[in-house]
Here is the input.
Amino acid sequence: MHGTRILDEADRLMTVCNSCRYCEGLCAVFPAMEMRRAFSDGDLNYLANLCHACGACYVDCQFSPPHEFNVNVPKTLAIARAESYAVYAWPQALSGAFARNGLVISIVAALSMAAFILGFAAVNDSGVLFGVHAGPGAFYRLMPHNAMAALFSAAFLYAIFALVMSVRAFWRDIGAPIGGRAEGGSILQAIRDAGELRYLDGGGVGCYNEDDKPTDRRKLYHHLTFYGFLLCFAATSVATLYHYVWGREAPYPWWDLPVALGTLGGIGLIVGPIGLFAARMRRDPALLDEQRYGMDVGFIAMLFLTGLTGMALLALRETAAMGPLLALHLGAVFALFITMPYGKFVHGIYRFAALVRYAQERKAEVS
Amino acid sequence: MSSKYDVLVIGGGNAALCAAISARRGGASVLVLEGAPKFYRGGNTRHTRNMRCAHDAATEILTGPYTEEEFWEDLLRVTGGQTDEVLARHMIRESKDILNWIVEQGVRWQPSLGGTLSLGRTNSFFLGGGRAMLNALYLTAERLGVEVEYDAEVTDLVIADDMFLAARLKRPIKGETEIHATSLVAAAGGFEANIEWLKQYWGEAADNFLIRGTPYNRGSILKMLLAKGVQEVGDPTQCHAVAIDARAPKFDGGIITRHDSVVFGIVVNKHAQRFYDEGEDIWPKRYAIWGRLVAAQPDQIAYIIFDSTVVTSFMPTLFPPIAGQTVAELAGKLELDPAALERTLAEFNAAVQPGTFDHTILDDCRTEGIVPPKTHWARRIATPPYLAYPVRPGITFTYLGTRVTKEARMLMTDGKPSANMFAAGEIMAGNVLGKGYAAGMGMTIGSVFGRIAGREAAKHARN
Here is the structure.
């Protein structure tokens, strides 16, 4: 059988589901399953990451518990998915971070923010740290721009590299049966599917949360979070261009593009995670990987913290609180970056890869 | 304690919910009594997947037209004429509108997603299957204000002068109570899960039957109605039975225990003897005869025998096939006489004539010189490993029911229609289906007559 208990269970369920197929219209998981008669570890990890955890197949299944066939696809695939993150993590030495993820993320975040506070305090005298700074370059009186850029570029590049290595391992594992590289059409399809969360909709009615009444709430909060994150990222990118191309230094006025984007994104990163957290707490435990509470909440908390400190910094940037708030915000963002490859952030990367794979398979099947 | 409603619906499946919704939309107060716990609600509906409705043109969910006349001809063919033409034609006409009406009640059809999904010309598929359909109906009913009670075991019906007065109810905690209502809709299914009742017609063989639906389809409401002067319809000995995996649970194995591999091999009984032409007709048409064929064999068991060349020719199965490198090894695992199985296979292989195999048509691969013959798709079974599925009769539903009018009103033994008793679904399916079956027809009967029964019951209650 398979290497782990959860993959054995996923295999059992996919065998049950493959002899039923009533759910084939709900999402991508079941059509992908139907293309196979037997399931390798990679196949199961692929299906697990293709699952968006909408819960519809559990509510619609005539064999879900208390039926003796005990079919619970969302929960089983949620656990398999979380375990797959550790399996493909790079470097493998750090895969243990997934085991007690909430703790790891909290410690890294606390250390990171403390380091920035202490660093600011060590480098600047208290007059500068608690001083009121205004006008272009105000932030860089606390930390030189080049130091800031170097530190965050390094953290960001490391995160990207670790993620690329991880997803490469995943891609190899799930691509093995049919092989082939991703081509433009499939990537475009996957961007569309991921961008609109096509499969987080219970086949059209919404996903299942605390009861058997479907809603689109989680999709909405996920959109707020995801697009909030992208807007913040865009704000930082535009600011970087301003700085290097036009020599315009932050902070920028509220109406300028980086601040406008960052403000909208920041609102998304505050409202979205709160909504996702509330949904997580209220969700029917039958649908959840309850063991991964820390991982789910840790990532949401990091995004929320990033949004909150960013908005606080914007609101109070012309007061004496600017210095400490800048340290907190930079600490939060730094922690977010370096924990990206070792936390819930990876779900988006693996799921995107799975969607590309699915688009490929569909195309191969139709032709 | 007693309470009074306009319409009492007994049952909790497709027919019952369509009746409840339609009665509620007609302005009636409605109580639904479902005998099963919430998870098992809905009787056989939870295992269904599609519905057969007439339509004049292809749609988003149907690949081509299926006229009323064609539907009628199909019904005539599968029942061998054992149907009530007036009722059946009425149902077929009404089925056209059901395609839309059921969507208005929240049910979703499975759309085509690039051609990989099951899409038919005659049948529409529920997105997410029968339980999803049922969930949608329950949500709509509850939103409209229909009251639903689960684990509600009706112990008696109070009927006087062909009029329904009240139902006696045994609640698990609150105890005995009486529910009064102005109209009754009985939509409580057949008696397929009532082994004792099945034994009246099948004898001890019924002990070896597997029941494909829940253990709650016990036919107690049907029995009460027939005992209290409602006219019966349908052959009590008839039931829809297919061959399902013998390793399936006694109840509620549903769709996933079925086997569609018969045409790819041979079927032997416990003496390792063949007993019927496995290649008689295209598979879906013969799907439902194998339950009865196996039921007629000693100990109600049979084995589909095939070899490794055809394993990917049919849907993957829940239970893996039993395998042997030699025929004797396989026979040992099946506890069959190895010599007898070897002989049966050798005779079969020797009788296979050359031909061009095509399982989608009645091809020319047949046997010669053996009894019974295999008239199509006969190919030698000679490539190890040798494989087998043990099968038993799996009972889907029964045909005995209450006779009804076009308004779904029950007819009494004296020939008069009851003023306030209606029936819908499997409990009256025998009016339309004297015998035989075509996929999705049970749901058509349920939705069409459920909708009518609810409407008429509400009309009676408001007058």
Remarks:
- The interface with chain B takes residues 15-16, 18-26, 31, 34, 37, 56-57, 59-63, 66-69, 203-205, 212-213, 362, 365-366 of chain A (CB under 8 Å).
- The first helix of chain A runs from residue 5 to 18.
- Chain A has a mean pLDDT of 93.
